[in-house]
Design goal:
With 498 residues, the protein is of the alpha/beta class. Helices cover 40% and strands 14% of the residues. It contains 20 helices and 16 strands.
Length: 498
């Protein structure tokens, strides 16, 4: 009898398990996902944590209650915790919040009146721009005042070495100077810094249109909506003819082009050489979200002006640190304007940097192991009768474009998305891998992408029609391939053949 190294993980368990700073949560059944999205049902009784920008961490709930009592805040107001006073100032200006509270705390606080639509708008804005308070900061605070009895034990780098270790590793990976790199408390906060910086720089040049190339991560698109009155979306990264035609009339009005390489979750890859020629023709900066491929798999230094990476993913590998980075390409003239981009980001909490510094030491080794596993898993999937379509970085749609930028033969992006010719729910429910949001983990992690990222589209006929238009299947499974023994990974999928 074959050993089965992958065991079912109960709904609501943190991913990674037994880690209070985990950024993912187990949703082992499709109904758990639906319950989570609907906001009620059996799963909601079990899910107490989740991705920090979407779900309030348990420590933040305790801290908010304590702050409310400490400062004698009226029940008419909700206490909203933020990463810093700078975040408070930005939110207050944007939403005209004048409920001032004088505090002496190492984080920011705003009061938002209950029973108003303003509260939901504020919470959504914090989600989009990543001004969330660190769970490690909350943990330290609560421990120091005696509201929790112990702190999570984890391996970290020395405080005096941590920041430089993270930045040096990124500098070597991207082949960029350390002074061209900054850290932020999340990938979205890094993207926010870039978008704000571009707007401030380019409006002086009469450029006020931001072009989004590809169906980008939802919060990236929301940041653009917040800060650009004019934006243009080209969903299909393969059809650069449409972009070229648009630029003929609007090229010199475009502030920047933002894209993902490759895209999430379909792993589509744009023709970087052709895109680069269009950018040069109209002097348009190119911003690349490099999270999925990582700098160890692709080299875009001849094309990108600015990189944004969510270090929460492959750089961490353990899904227990929320952090992002901006990397300015020294070949670009924008690299001389680092202050304009970096000043909008908040500072990452030192304990998060220390944890990241410990994890990032294995970044390259992790990425290359995951790459080789991805390659082998793709070859297995090609033999599977139960799989309808395989989306990966070197399939027929992408091979030409991806080979232009991949570093070596072992440079597969560690994601595979698949659709099935069997019941999606039965397949999802019966696989014993970890299942929940996020990616880039050393443990194989499955996500029913459209259900978790775009559930509102699934619920309506109009939404389903839009999903068809952008080519995003409702029943698509995104697999973040782990670094476990590849035979064990394949054998778990082989159970579907039984």
């Amino acid at each position: 009898m074959n050993k089965r190294p992958f065991k079912p993980i109960e709904c609501g368990e943190t991913l990674p398990q037994n880690n209070v700073h985990a950024v993912s949560v187990s949703m082992p059944k499709l109904q758990d996902v639906i319950d989570y999205e609907e906001g009620f049902g059996e799963a909601m009784k079990k899910i107490k944590s989740g991705y920090p920008r979407f779900t309030m961490h348990p420590y933040l709930r305790i801290l908010a209650k304590y702050i409310k009592e400490k400062y004698k805040v009226s029940d008419s107001y909700e206490v909203v915790l933020l990463s810093s006073q700078k975040a408070v100032d930005i939110l207050s200006d944007k939403y005209y919040i004048h409920n001032k509270i004088e505090i002496d705390e190492p984080f920011g606080i705003i009061l938002v009146r209950n029973g108003t639509c303003q509260l939901q708008r504020v919470l959504m804005f914090i989600q989009h721009v990543g001004y969330n308070l660190s769970s490690r900061l909350a943990e330290d605070y609560l421990y120091n005042i005696g509201l929790i009895n112990s702190k999570h034990k984890e391996e970290i780098e020395k405080e005096e070495l941590a920041f430089d270790l993270v930045v040096s590793t990124l500098g070597n990976a991207y082949n960029q100077a350390k002074e061209n790199i900054t850290l932020a408390p999340s990938g979205m906060n890094a993207m926010y810094g870039v978008v704000k910086g571009l707007k401030n720089i380019q409006r002086k040049n009469g450029r006020d249109i931001l072009v989004q190339l590809g169906w980008l991560y939802l919060d990236t698109m929301n940041i653009v909506k917040h800060y650009y009155e004019q934006s243009k979306v080209f969903c299909d990264v393969k059809n650069l003819d449409l972009l070229e035609e648009y630029l003929k009339d609007n090229g010199f009005k475009v502030s920047a082009i933002i894209t993902e390489v490759p895209t999430n979750p379909l792993l589509l890859c744009v023709d970087m050489k052709r895109l680069n020629s269009l950018c040069k023709k109209y002097n348009i900066p190119l911003v690349v979200d490099s999270t999925l491929a990582t700098p160890y798999n692709i080299d875009l230094n001849d094309y990108a002006d600015i990189y944004v990476e969510s270090l929460t993913k492959f750089a961490s590998g353990n899904a227990d640190v929320l952090m992002g980075a901006i990397i300015l390409n020294q070949k670009s003239k924008l690299s001389h304007m680092s202050v304009e981009f970096f000043k909008h980001c908040d500072k990452a909490y030192i304990k998060d940097i220390q944890r990241m510094a410990f994890e990032i030491k294995d970044y390259e080794t992790r990425v290359k192991k995951i790459s080789s596993n991805t390659k082998a898993l793709v070859e297995y999937f090609k033999t599977c009768s139960y799989i309808d379509k395989i989306y990966y970085c070197l399939n027929d749609e992408n091979a030409f474009e991806y080979k232009q930028i991949m570093k070596d033969d072992n440079s597969y992006t560690g994601l595979i998305s698949v659709t099935f010719n069997k019941s999606f729910e039965i397949i999802y429910d019966n696989l014993n891998f970890a299942k929940g949001p996020s990616l880039g983990t050393e443990f194989t992690l499955l996500m029913p992408y459209t259900y978790l990222a775009h559930y509102d589209y699934i619920k309506s006929e109009e939404g389903k029609k839009y999903l068809d238009e952008i080519g995003l299947p409702k029943d698509i499974l995104r697999i973040s391939v782990g670094s476990e023994n590849i035979n064990d990974i394949i054998n778990e999928f082989k159970r579907l053949e039984e």
